[in-house]
């Protein structure tokens, strides 16, 4: 991680959960973190731990995401659009702008999409509706970007990091109520476990690229 010390990392969706854990871990490793989130009150609580942007972007962590429960057969178009806009379009815009900045400053950077195991397989869980489709899109976007960066001969890495069930505010309330049981049965992991995965991915030598990393609980049945 020494080569990233004093470099700038942008983390989206950084107000809580996985994003906050990643931002804190990056700060611990000597990076300047620009933490972005929609909920300013949550982000203000972290502000003292982060410093402002100093120099070009070297790392982008696309963590921001959303979803809603419901069925495809009677779902709300507005909620679907919100999910697609943030999970797919927002991620693509952030990536585009980061690559532009990296190219302009001749930076050998790293982009990490926080994906999901639902971007690789769809479990028999009712009410997931459009969310898995957006994560499958993230899987495709990561590979498309990898090929594009190769064709442009840019030394920018792209990693798709896919967590299993993580104990965050994002999980449905009924699952949160089962936290103790899930931990006892090794069916859920913590945001810090994903942050450790990010550090591992970033710590690889310049010529090594972790294309896909899946981090899931030991007894994950998905």
From TrEMBL:
Pfam families: adh_short. The keyword Repressor does not apply. GO terms for molecular function: oxidoreductase activity. PROSITE patterns: ADH_SHORT (PS00061). Signal peptide: none annotated. Keywords: Oxidoreductase. Belongs to the short-chain dehydrogenases/reductases (SDR) family. This is Farnesol dehydrogenase. It comes from Rhamnusium bicolor.
